[in-house]
Amino acid sequence: MLKRLDRIRFRGRRDDFLDLAESPNTSDTECSEEVVIKPRTSVRETEEVREAEVEPQGDVQAGPGSFSAALDDRTDLNEVKGHLEIALLEKHYLQEELRKLKEESNVDSLKQELEKERCRRIELEQKINDALRSRLEDSPSQTPKAPSAPSAAGSDKQKETLVDTLLKWLYDRFGVYIEDFRFQPEEMTVETEEPLSAKRLTENMRRLKRGFRPVTNFMRNLSALSSWYSIYTSAIAFIVYMYVAWNGWVIPMFLFLAILRLSLNYLIAKGWRIQWSIVPEVSEPMEPPKEDLTVSEKFQLVLDVAQKAQNLFGRMANILEKIKNLFMWVQPELTQKLYVGLWLAFISSCLLPYKLLGFIIGVYAGIKFFIIDFIFKSCPKLRQRYDTPFIIWTNLPTDLQLKERSNTMLGRRVIAAGGRGSLTAAAPVGVSRDEDGGRYYSTKRGAFHEVFNLPESERPLTVCETGWRCCLINRDRKTPTDYIRNGVLYVTENYLCFESSSSRSGSSKRNKVIKLLEITDIQKYKVLSVLPGSGMGISIATPSTQKPMVFGAMMHRDEAFEAIYTQYMKIVTMATAINPET
């Protein structure tokens, strides 16, 4: 009996088993394994326990020695019972957990619902097919149901059936095409806008440039053909075109050239290397993609792309505004020429036969393209005097130019109203008069020559009539009020003038006048090296200053630098020509 008990005895004690609350959560597989194994062990153990309970009763009668052994067996049996109770409780607990998990997952119910939906779909499809079949079967079977009707009624029904069959045949044959003409409301699709990205902006500008490249190459080749860049090519093209125009084959020639171009493009797409151009193409170096850019590099990249986009949009706006102003009679003397030309073309198209009209247009286009344009390009003065399309296009104003003209006209009217009192009256206060053209120059503080104590002949150049907004950084001064001054910079024929915005109307102490001949060095300057770009300042050194003066925070720095440097070199050249010794 002891051997049997040793077989079923647990090696651990009651304390070694975890409580139900402290037992860890187990997976479904672990639960299933324990559920399968533990019931079998429990049944054996119960049978052995029963045998163990029965056998001690016989052993008690054997003697006092066997009584102590029976007591030990009883304690072992009690321990086994305790372990069995714990195992049963664990089994019950795990079964409850498994049931809860199954209820939560609800997989079986979902599978059942899915099968039900499939069955419903199949039933509905069968019903629809049956209904369609019944309709098709009923439509031809409706005709023979009236044999007892009169002959007239039978003939009418036969006609109706014939009409129905004919309509059905027409619908089956052309119904698909009729459905295409059904009116439907247009769907409004809203495109999602992408956020601003320096990389995407740069890539879009490159794509635009690549897309315009075929057009620019074509226009460059046409220009080279008309300017006789290659004499042999232009001569051959001129002879062929004039022969075609003389025989009236201009339109077939252009169609043949289009077909030839598409054929060449097809061969290029298949891998053939075909390159033909009058002007040799300049291959632009491909910039490697820049992945890791600093903040300053990204900022500079955005500035460069924005500048290119600004210039491109400005040119496109100028073209569109000129075309609009041409048709809106903004410049009547220019639109009048177009008006007369359209009337002549209309009358010619009404009176002349189309063959003769096409011959005249073709011959004139060839002579204009190959000979007249070449002469005008070689002689600019002739072009400015006799080339009517060039004159019209160059003299057409844009909206910005019209606005500037209106502002200048308004200023002249105000000046004329102020000086209407007497013919010999001087220029109004705050205005200086140009003796040659009767133009007045002024600043916000008064007359230009009075503000800077200059002769009346000194006036701003046409490039800087309104001046450039900037700040003067005088590094020789220590006090903050004298170190940086905000104001406007002007350049005249002999002087560089800075008008401080903090100077009073009658005082010129804070203004700065620099003679161009006294400048020893002029350079572009970057005030803050931390900021991206090449800077927005100009440094000017003179003998009277220990450190160069800097005109910073200038929006149009490059334009101002070019104007100042050009005038400076002009004055220096004139001075050296007058006094070679200096």
From TrEMBL:
**Which stretches are tagged as biased composition: Basic and acidic residues?**
42-53
Keywords annotated in UniProt? Membrane, Transmembrane, Transmembrane helix
Tell me a GO biological process for this protein: apoptotic process
What's the short name of a Pfam family annotated to this entry?
A: GRAM
SMART domains for the chain:
GRAM
Annotated Low complexity bias: 139-153
Name the Gene3D superfamilies on file. Pleckstrin-homology domain (PH domain)/Phosphotyrosine-binding domain (PTB) (2.30.29.30)
What are the start and end residues of every segment in region (Disordered)?
A: 41-70, 132-157
The UniProt transmembrane annotation reads 222-243, 249-268
Q: Where is the GRAM domain?
A: 446-526
Keyword Transmembrane helix present in the record's keywords: the answer is yes
Q: Has the keyword Membrane been applied to this entry?
A: yes
Q: Know the name of this protein?
A: GRAM domain-containing protein
What organism is recorded for this protein? Oreochromis aureus (Israeli tilapia)
